[in-house]
Design brief:
Number of strands: 7
CATH architecture: 3-Layer(aba) Sandwich
Strand content: 15-25%
CATH class: Alpha Beta
CATH topology: Rossmann fold
Distance between the termini: 41 Å
Order of helices and strands: EHEEHEHEHEHHHE
Largest sheet: 7 strands, parallel
Structural class: alpha/beta
Radius of gyration: 17 Å
Amino acid sequence: MKGAVVVTGAARGIGRTIAHTLMQTGPFTVVGVDLSPELAEVDGIVPVQVDLTSVDGPATVLEAVESTGLPLLGLVNNAGITRDSRLVNMSTEDFTSVIEVNLGATYRLCEALAPHVVEEGAIVNIASRAYLGNFGQFNYSMSKGGVVGLTRALAISLAPRVRVNAIAPGLIATEMSMAIPEDIREKMVGAIPMGRMGEPEEIANAVWYLISPLSSYVTGHVLVVGGGRSLK
């Protein structure tokens, strides 16, 4: 079935790769959502430049979906931010902004779009391996743990009409990861059994699986894509 899939955080990194992968491998029109003006550089998408934490954010995305005239087949909640700090140094602003973007905006977009997703459609929430706990990422780990809880709760409430799953990426070779000091990054890679960082395409392929009918009997699952890091 041809239809639309909403991908948030589509201007760069993993979100941009997800958008391209879905357009290339499936009968999907991608409604790409981001606050960044770089969104205009992503070829082939229906761009929606909006702040998802704003009151009108979800409604603006829904209007863009309806403008395509296509059924809504799925939603990929990828948008997220980091404001890393140890708990003793965490400012109230850094704490609340990460929770609001990573968890609050994800919840509100699911709330707005879930009733419009077609039967046998799918929602994929991008969490993080950090939901298991990461030093110096108190707010981020908490927000992504909330995304996992949201995923499981939605999977129950929307079944059997819509499947809801999460992907928890490990260390992925994005602009953000490459900004980590090299010595620290090498130590992080050294803790990964696969011996390397993941590629954005590997997350996008996992999204494709969970959006597509290939995963028709999978819901409420958290797929950790981290090269085995969670084994240690």
